[in-house]
């Protein structure tokens, strides 16, 4: 491929700004293998045609390029076969039922009025490379819609790739993740590693990883081959010498031609609206009635439709009147399925008999296909017992049932069969509010749901935790955006001792309550989704948070194995330690008292023992016995407060972890299943609840012993992959601190380097106390630590602590510049952004109360760092499953604990799994400092960490 002409003139006034080139052949095979067999009325197979058509519809609806073309392979033989007769020679023939679909797929492209290009003797990739070069020389930005690794050599200099199945952009970072080098060196790596699928020979014994190392070290293939005699490994040296010509041949095979005399001009790719009659005829001929319903009024106007201004989504969502329907027979269900397919977007919600997603039973499903247009499908309702007395306002259909009457509802298997194809139809978007819960419930009855959107996550991405009153619950959002009060749960199920489960709610009341949830979920989606583009949050939602929804669902379903015997033994040990400490505290006090009572403890400490504390509880005005007060008293040498702190620690470990975790073990799986929250933090970090597995203490020996109860299944191992000092690395990157960046690049002890620069002490033989002080400041700076806080942490006078902080800023002035700039950004906008564009809101940044303002300023300083770290590990999590699959590994991701991922793998695959995890995590972001990942493999979490 020729080098780009960097002196080419910019685009003239009539040139297009953006060009989309679609790898049509890649579309075909992805569509064929992802969809079940389908035939049109004349018996012609059309599953690949249907898949390509839906993908093309989505592409045209989403993209903003002025020019577009779909590029296909013309035939199997190309100029590369003249170079190497066996090139792609062992590839099997196309499946028999796919062959007749090839010409129909070309018809589909033309029916959408999109340019369709192919050429004998060249692959689609060569045509794409040529058009990309031509466009680049005219100053036109190019997006190549494909995930083909061979096209990654084109990335950069105005050319980007987009994976259409994962909706994931592929830039230089993703190329480095795949090949270990940048796009400009991909050809050299491929030439060395070869490609068995295409019969590209490469050099024996050299894979992609080794090839990347060699090219990185020697610069390019020619230099490497010329200096092959320098290679230390005898076998590798001999192979590079013996197979040098084979490597050069392989380079010729994998290099894309960008000088093809293409059959159609670039300026003929202008985007045109489809001819309505032609597109309708194509869709009808192939039996794609549901697709026709989607394009009517969008890609093509409905005949006779008034093409006025686009409706206001808020006004439309508010104005729609509710019309809810009970679905109690198969025919009505089929009608709703057809309506959902025609709509292309639907909301779904489940009703259950319990709150736990892993233990709840399915009671019913609600669907919404338009604002106000929703239904409820009852499945698990029982006789109403005495619950018919509850009164509801609101519309809806269905008759009230008398107490004791068995409700009429669909059999579960009939409902599952009726919904299965709809819920996995790639052309129908399923929207839920906290849809992760619904995915759990539906999966247990055999229903897969894809693709999905989540209005709770949408709201969080747009408004964070600092915008508007309330949270991101459906009730809060309906009230905030639509001034609508949702039916409260207690209105249908009661409260207190009289509360019933949802399966005992009469159907008329269940209908109104359940259908309203789906209805307002859809209304929210219509309101919130367009804001992503307007507020520049598409990338955060589509590449960071939305892909995590199904991934976290899978992780929650997997759970983690916990050994109850270990936990019970620890509980007994902790109980004895608590008893011993209680006796010791009573001895020191001179009498028994309730250690858990703040009032009684305050009496002992401040009245009887005469200890001094100026702090009082904000709530009661009584003298505080909080941990900070007890720590101060203990630091002054008082034994009783120190023993009370120990007592509290053991009591918490026992009640919160060793006792509770045994009760949290799911009897069906033998594992503990946490619930990960995507919307609970201001920085984008995930939370963990029911139980919280992110707060198990690791700084104490007792906390580490609790992690020892988390074990792998027999024959398996746990893998811990943990980012090393990621937040300090982000500080060095975002604040551009040269000294710290140099230290990270050289793998130096960052705390010793900091101490050396601050205190003038040599790194070798450094006093551990100096290093400890530097470490406290390094980490404290991230959280905006004050002189008072540092003084408490290091047990030094406040003046000395302030001197340390002043010395730090003098030695690293870049960090102070970053802090001031970040606070100014927060004051101007009300939020700060992470490296990846996430908004972290900073309420209180302009508060007149100096304490509130200071708190907000410290949060603003920390948010881009902690939020950036959260985004990076999310990127790694999203990429990891496909990387494991590509490596032929069966490991599964179990937990995310801040900067650490926990996986479980068969023992024979454990080390390789750790290697893949380390590679993916290290490549999750391109920083000016290296990302380092520590991995461990062991039978327990404690030993792996």
UniProtKB/TrEMBL annotation:
Q: Which GO terms describe its biological process?
A: DNA-templated DNA replication; double-strand break repair
Q: What is its EC number?
A: 2.7.7.7
Principal EC category: transferase
The UniProt keyword set, sorted, is:
DNA damage, DNA repair, DNA replication, DNA-binding, DNA-directed DNA polymerase, Exonuclease, Hydrolase, Nuclease, Nucleotidyltransferase, Transferase
SUPFAM superfamilies membership: 5' to 3' exonuclease, C-terminal subdomain (SSF47807), DNA/RNA polymerases (SSF56672), PIN domain-like (SSF88723), Ribonuclease H-like (SSF53098)
**3'-5' exonuclease domain: from which residue to which, for each copy?**
324-533
What is the superkingdom listed in this entry's lineage? Bacteria
Catalyses which reaction(s): DNA(n) + a 2'-deoxyribonucleoside 5'-triphosphate = DNA(n+1) + diphosphate
Pfam families noted in UniProt = 5_3_exonuc, 5_3_exonuc_N, DNA_pol_A, DNA_pol_A_exo1
Residue intervals of the 5'-3' exonuclease domain: 17-272
Please provide, alphabetically and separated by semicolons, the GO molecular function terms listed in this UniProt record. Answer: 3'-5' exonuclease activity; 5'-3' exonuclease activity; DNA binding; DNA-directed DNA polymerase activity
Ranges for domain DNA-directed DNA polymerase family A palm come to 703-909
Concerning InterPro entries, the annotation shows: 3'-5'_exonuclease_dom, 5-3_exonucl_a-hlix_arch_N, 5-3_exonuclease, 5-3_exonuclease_C_sf, DNA-dir_DNA_pol_A_CS, DNA-dir_DNA_pol_A_palm_dom, DNA/RNA_pol_sf, DNA_polI_H3TH
PANTHER family reported for this sequence: DNA POLYMERASE I, DNA POLYMERASE NU
Q: How does it assemble?
A: Single-chain monomer with multiple functions.
Q: What does this protein do?
A: In addition to polymerase activity, this DNA polymerase exhibits 3'-5' and 5'-3' exonuclease activity.
**Assigned protein family:** Belongs to the DNA polymerase type-A family.
Q: What is this protein called?
A: DNA polymerase I
Q: What species does this protein belong to?
A: Roseospira visakhapatnamensis
């Amino acid at each position: 491929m020729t080098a780009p002409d960097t002196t080419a003139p910019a685009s003239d006034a009539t040139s297009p700004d953006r060009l989309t080139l679609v790898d049509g052949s890649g579309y075909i095979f992805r569509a064929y293998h992802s969809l079940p067999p389908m035939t049109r009325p004349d018996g012609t197979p059309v599953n690949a045609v249907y898949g390509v058509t839906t993908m093309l519809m989505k592409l045209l609806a989403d993209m903003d390029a002025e020019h577009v073309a779909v590029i296909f392979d013309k035939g199997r033989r190309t100029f590369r076969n003249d170079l190497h007769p066996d090139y792609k020679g062992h590839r099997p023939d196309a499946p028999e039922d796919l062959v007749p679909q090839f010409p129909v797929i070309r018809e589909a492209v033309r029916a959408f009025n999109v340019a369709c290009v192919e050429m004998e003797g060249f692959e689609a990739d060569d045509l794409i490379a040529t058009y990309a070069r031509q466009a680049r020389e005219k100053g036109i930005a190019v997006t190549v819609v494909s995930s083909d690794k061979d096209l990654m050599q084109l990335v950069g200099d105005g050319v980007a790739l987009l994976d259409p199945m994962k909706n994931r952009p592929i830039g230089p970072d993703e190329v480095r993740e795949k090949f270990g080098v940048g796009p400009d060196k991909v050809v050299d790596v491929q030439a060395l590693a070869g490609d068995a699928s295409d019969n590209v020979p490469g050099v024996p014994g050299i894979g992609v990883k080794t090839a990347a190392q060699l090219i990185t070290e020697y610069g390019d293939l020619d230099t490497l081959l010329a200096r092959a005699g320098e290679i230390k490994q005898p076998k590798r040296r001999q192979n590079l010498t013996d197979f040098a010509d084979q490597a050069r041949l392989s380079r010729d095979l994998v290099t894309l031609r960008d000088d093809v005399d293409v059959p159609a001009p670039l300026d003929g790719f202008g985007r045109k609206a489809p001819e309505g009659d032609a597109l309708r005829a194509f869709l009808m001929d192939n039996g794609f009635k549901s697709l026709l319903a989607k394009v009517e009024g969008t890609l093509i106007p409905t005949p006779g439709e008034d093409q006025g201004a686009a409706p206001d989504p808020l006004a439309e969502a508010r104005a729609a009147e509710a019309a809810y329907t009970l679905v109690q027979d198969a025919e009505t269900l089929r009608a709703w399925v057809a309506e959902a397919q025609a709509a292309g977007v639907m909301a779904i919600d489940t009703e259950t008999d319990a709150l736990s997603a892993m233990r709840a039973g399915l009671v019913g499903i609600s669907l919404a296909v338009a604002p106000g247009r929703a239904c409820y499908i009852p499945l698990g309702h029982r006789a109403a017992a005495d619950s018919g007395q509850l009164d509801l306002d609101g519309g809806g259909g269905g008759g009230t049932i008398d107490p004791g009457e068995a409700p009429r509802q669909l059999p579960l298997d009939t409902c599952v069969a009726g919904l299965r194809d709809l819920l996995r139809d790639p052309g129908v978007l399923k929207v839920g509010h906290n849809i992760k819960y619904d995915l759990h419930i539906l999966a247990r009855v055999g229903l897969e749901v894809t693709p999905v959107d989540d209005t709770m996550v949408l709201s969080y991405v747009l408004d964070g935790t600092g915008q508007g009153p309330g949270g991101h619950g459906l009730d809060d959002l309906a009230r905030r955006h639509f001034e609508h009060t949702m039916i409260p749960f207690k209105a249908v199920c009661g409260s207190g001792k009289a509360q019933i489960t949802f399966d005992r709610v009469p159907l008329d009341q269940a209908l109104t309550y359940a259908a309203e949830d789906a209805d307002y979920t859809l209304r929210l989606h219509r309101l919130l989704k367009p804001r992503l583009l307007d507020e520049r949050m598409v990338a955060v939602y589509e590449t960071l948070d939305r892909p995590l929804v199904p991934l976290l669902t899978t992780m929650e379903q997997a759970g983690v194995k916990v050994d109850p015997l270990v936990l019970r033994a620890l509980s007994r040990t902790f109980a004895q330690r608590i008893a011993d400490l209680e006796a010791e505290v009573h001895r020191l006090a001179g009498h028994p008292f309730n250690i858990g009572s703040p009032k009684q403890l305050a009496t002992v400490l401040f009245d009887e023992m005469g200890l001094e504390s100026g702090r009082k509880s904000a709530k009661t005005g009584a003298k505080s016995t909080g941990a900070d007060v007890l720590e101060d008293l203990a630091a002054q040498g008082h034994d009783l407060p120190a023993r009370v702190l120990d007592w509290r620690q053991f009591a918490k470990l026992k009640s919160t972890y060793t006792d509770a975790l045994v009760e949290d073990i799911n009897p069906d799986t033998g594992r503990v299943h946490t619930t990960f929250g995507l919307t609970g933090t201001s920085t984008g970090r995930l939370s963990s609840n029911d139980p919280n597995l992110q707060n198990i203490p690791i700084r104490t020996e007792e906390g580490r012993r609790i992690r020892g109860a988390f074990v792998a299944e027999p024959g398996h191992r746990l893998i811990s992959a943990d980012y090393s000092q990621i937040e300090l690395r982000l500080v060095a990157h975002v604040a551009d601190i040269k000294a710290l960046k140099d230290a990270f690049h050289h793998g130096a002890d960052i705390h010793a380097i900091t101490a050396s620069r601050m205190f003038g002490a040599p790194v070798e033989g450094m006093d551990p106390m100096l290093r400890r002080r530097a470490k406290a400041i390094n980490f404290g700076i991230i959280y905006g630590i004050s002189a008072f806080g540092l003084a408490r942490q290091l047990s030094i006078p406040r003046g000395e602590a302030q001197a340390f902080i002043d010395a730090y800023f003098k030695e690293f002035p870049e960090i102070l510049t970053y802090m001031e700039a970040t606070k100014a950004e927060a004051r101007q906008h009300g939020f700060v952004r992470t490296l990846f564009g996430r908004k972290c809101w900073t309420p209180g940044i302009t508060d007149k109360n100096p304490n509130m303002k200071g708190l907000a300023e410290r949060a603003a300083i920390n948010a881009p760092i902690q939020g950036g770290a959260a985004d990076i590990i999310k990127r790694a999590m999203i990429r990891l499953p496909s990387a494991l699959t590509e490596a032929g590994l069966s490991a599964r991701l179990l937990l995310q604990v801040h900067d650490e991922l926990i996986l479980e793998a068969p023992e024979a695959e454990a080390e390789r799994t750790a290697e893949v995890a380390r590679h993916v995590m290290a490549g999750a972001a391109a920083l000016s400092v290296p990302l380092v990942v520590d991995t461990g493999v062991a039978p327990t979490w404690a030993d792996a960490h």
